[in-house]
Amino acid sequence: MPANLRLSYFLPVIIILTLAAIFWSYLGEIKDGKSIQDLPSALIDKPAPVFKLPSINSGDKGFDSAVLKGQVTLVNVWASWCAPCRIEHPRMMQLAREGVAIYGINYKDTPEAATGFLTELGNPYKAVGADRTGKISIDWGVYGYPETFVVDPKGHIRYRHVGPIMAQDLTDKIRPLIKALNK
Amino acid sequence: MITVRLLALILISVIGLSSANAVEPNEILKDPVLEQRARALSQDLRCLVCQNQSIDDSNADLARDLRVVVRDRLTAGDTDKQVMAFVVARYGEFVLLKPPVNARTSLLWSGPALVLLFGAIGLVLWFRRRGSATAEGLSADEEKRLAVLMDENTVSGETEQ
């Protein structure tokens, strides 16, 4: 039989193997804790949004985006009603102890609940702005809570993390990035 | 007939249900023209929480907020293009339910046509090969064997009757 016919015998096998390789790579990503639903941020390497949010309590200062320039900062979008925010909170406290400047955007919360959350678990934030309508969060392209952004000294967003930050995210991504940006 | 009518009724009501939208009365703009544009735009914007629904269909909190943002932009005098650019700047092209035609999506858009083309080429090749195989005909040897087989068949056929 001619050679091209023999090739066509192997074609299904080649197709199956190619598909298997693609699926395998997706499976690997899931195993590494990355969800297929994690979307890349459209704002990477772009300037952070400009805004001025009032504080959760009328007494404190709010969150003015001007503070994002001149140092490496973390911007954490959270809410007292968001369970994963509670899960990641110890990591925020730890980063704050390490001297990282963390700013909070309190998403659609009541002043009482938000204050209660910080009183109960500790306050890692240099300042927290209350985003009651959710409009500023939309400016950041937020679609799930919590979300954390790393902003470089020029005020550009360099990294976005969707979901709670776990110990491994600190060692693998957040700390090395902050270190690199501080140089 | 009654069952047919009943089926038709069920079908119509199901289709009617699926086009129901999530827009709440207090979101609707007073200007019907602007509201119409807002509805059209919302149907092309993906809800990022429940990723296969448009923000017009989704009851998610974020979808509601995005519907309000779309309406705010339109009221402020943005064109449809500006509104879409506003949302894409924040959420990326993934937010568009209908992907734009550009270099990155060229394979996506041309994919079906390419599959059709390859299928057509494959069919043509297959028919050609088959055509040439039958055209060769039988050799003298094969003709002889065929005649013998046919004879056997008729003989056995007769004995059975």
Total of helices of chain B: 6
Q: What would the average pLDDT of chain A be, to the nearest integer?
A: 89
Name the CATH architecture of the largest domain in chain B.
Answer: Orthogonal Bundle
Contiguous low-pLDDT stretches of chain B (5 residues minimum) are none
Helix/strand structural class of chain B: mainly alpha
Radius of gyration of chain B: 31 Å
What does this protein structure show overall?
The complex is a heterodimer of chains A (183) and B (161). In chain A, 42% of the residues lie in helices and 18% in strands. Chain A has five helices and seven strands, in the order αβββαβαβαββα. Chain A is elongated, with a radius of gyration of 22 Å. In chain B, helix 2 crosses helix 3 (61-75) and helix 3 packs antiparallel against helix 4 (80-91). Chain B contains six helices and no strands. Chain B has two domains: 2-100, Helicase, Ruva Protein, domain 3 (Orthogonal Bundle); 110-160, no CATH class. The chains are: A alpha/beta (183), B mainly alpha (161).
The gist of it:
The complex is a heterodimer of chains A (183) and B (161). Chain A is an alpha/beta fold. In chain A, 42% of the residues lie in helices and 18% in strands.
